[in-house]
Amino acid sequence: xxxxxxxxxxxxxxxxxxxxxxxxxxxxxxxxxxxxxxxxxxxxxxxxxxxxxxxxxxxxxxxxxxxxxxxxxxxxxxxxxxxxxxxxxxxxxxxxxxxxxxxxxxxxxxxxxxxxxxxxxxxxxxxxxxxxxxxxxxxxxxxxxxxxxxxxxxxxxxxxxxxxxxxxxxxxxxxxxxxxxxxxxxxxxxxxxxxxxxxxxxxxxxxxxxxxxxxxxxxxxxxxxxxxxxxxxxxxxxxxxxxxxxxxxxxxxxxxxxxxxxxxxxxxxxxxxxxxxxxxxxxxxxxxxxxx
Length: 292
Fold this sequence. Notes:
By secondary structure, the chain is mainly alpha-helical. Helices cover 74% and strands 0% of the residues.
């Protein structure tokens, strides 16, 4: 009986160790990992959950969502309870605008694994696009409160950027006093994100959007907006939202040809892009700055 208990104990420990890897470290690795090098490691260890996860993350960063999904699905075939793999699938679904399916998975992950920050960030983006800016702030703050040591650098920066963006939208829709309160939270969080991930597309996009949308009296500057947004697409040519905001820059300047060109570029990359369609239809839930 004692022998059976010992064997059961080691079986449980082995099973847990098979998927309880350091996801934070792998996220940080993915920011600078060489795809060819990781693929060579994958050939040598095709059932390594760590390598499969890393490959999924790298392919997400390259906008190769189908390829990323294949690695996350393989992870789940090896370990069906891998919440990291489930998040990867949910993130792919989010990018495909299959929002309800993605949201259901993300909420389940957060309920079961409240320290797993990538799920909060993905859900915060969904809530932002749903115009639930208060919930987006809440999710971003949950990640920030976890602390820098418990969150990978990219998701920690993203949390500050989402916080800044959502607070900016809340300010836009608020009364004068609330505009001051919420608006004052935008730039400090953009600067915090910049200190964590300087010279990155996501940070340049956040800064460019601020300088585009902010009233001149609180720092709005169309030339700064143009500069930061151009830097964004130079670093990341597939950043659809950045092309939308660039389109608005050019419409503000009266360059309708460039406006249409950049808006078309965004829709070519992502035909269902929420921001692009908001601008194109003149719905303006996300601020049609410079629009008629």
